[in-house]
Amino acid sequence: MDTADRRTGASAVSQGAEAEIVRARISTKIEAYRNYAFTDRQARAMNIFFDLAQEFEEIRQVHILAVLVLDMLFDYKAGLYIRNEAGRLTPVDTGLDVGAPAIGDVRDTLWRAGGFCYVPVHGKAAGQTAQTGEDLLGLLVLREQTAFPEHTQLFLQKYANRLGYCLHNKLMAANNIGHLRFLRKLSKDIGHNIITPNMRLKHQLNLFKANLGRLDERLAVLSDAGDAAVFQDILALRKVMDEQFAAVTAGFNNSALFMESLMRQSHFDLGHFVLRIARLDMGKSIVAPQVERYRYLFEERGVEMEGGRAVLPDEPCFVEADYGLISQVLANLLSNAAKYASPAPGSDRRRVHCSLVKDGCNAKVIVFSTGPHIAPEEAVRLFDDDYRASNAAESYGTGHGLFFVRDIMENHKGTAGYEPAPGGNNFYFTLPLAPQSEQDA
User: Fold this and answer.
1) Which domains does the chain have, with CATH numbers?
2) pTM for the whole thing?
3) Residue that wins the pLDDT comparison between 441 and 64
4) At what angle do helices 59-74 and 40-55 cross, to 10 degrees?
5) CA 349 from centre of chain
């Protein structure tokens, strides 16, 4: 069973279990409402509040709604206190004044004192089964002309619960909207403060290249002058500068590519990766450049690259993909190979190997690294978000890289996976081959 099948099977089991949980909760609620035995007016109040709370977008409107439903259906004079950022309960101006005294100590459940009934309004506390002061959102305060009977107190508590859940969801929605606005602003800031200055850096690189050309002209003049020793020294320096220029340019191009791919405004606007599809030769456009880019890292870490370069098929493998995002996918796998490659059993050599093959109707990129196999119970979770296998415990990482790989491949209708291999481990991804084109001939 491959990774996609395992996820599909796990999802089906999960959905079945969730359906049973929901079914059990419905049954519990049916029995609970039977025991509540709300009057028709109380049930109507619940429904009116729920319907209108979904309709009103502003939280302040929900505050007013909560007290007016009680006033209009029961003639209960109620006030509402909301917990502010400092943790203090402050009164909400709803147009009704119940003349409640200053709020002192707050309890977790309904209490009565001095002719008033106090009903805590709790939100949804994550991971908590009991109501605590930490999830307190506010307080309903009702004037008692006569003491509320127990059944009315029960209704008020359930009414306050519905108010609390509604306020909680409204606050979460407001926070999420604010967060999305911030992300959209952030993407614009990135464009203005990082991507645009990078264009200036590219201009400087072009000037550097132009000056190298001028240096070549001077070298030609110096060569004609006949000072061979000085000429050879400067020529060697020129070669070093040329190599440095090529390395800086390659690094800049890759950084600019990945930044553009990951920081597109459309990702932030729509809340998911938006692909820019182009027809690509996987070997020439993606695999060879990324392997060459990571050559220095393999050398720096004493990891041997088998064959010195990527192994490509004789014929091009054309795919339709997002150039920047697929490049980042391979970069993640190569980076992991450099980080986690270890000697194979019975050897002291650490090796990596990258190949592109045609696998049926797919182009398959495989990154091999030596080392012990990953345990099956860990292998099935490698592409889960935030998961790190035990062999990664001592290396820096976020546990997000392989999840990103899987996410991007699923967006491309491709696959990503892991398989043990003789002497090490294969991480791979596949993309459907593009239809033949007249340009391929």
Assistant:
1) 26-174 (3.30.450.40), 176-241 (no CATH), 275-440 (3.30.565.10)
2) 0.58
3) 64
4) 160
5) 36
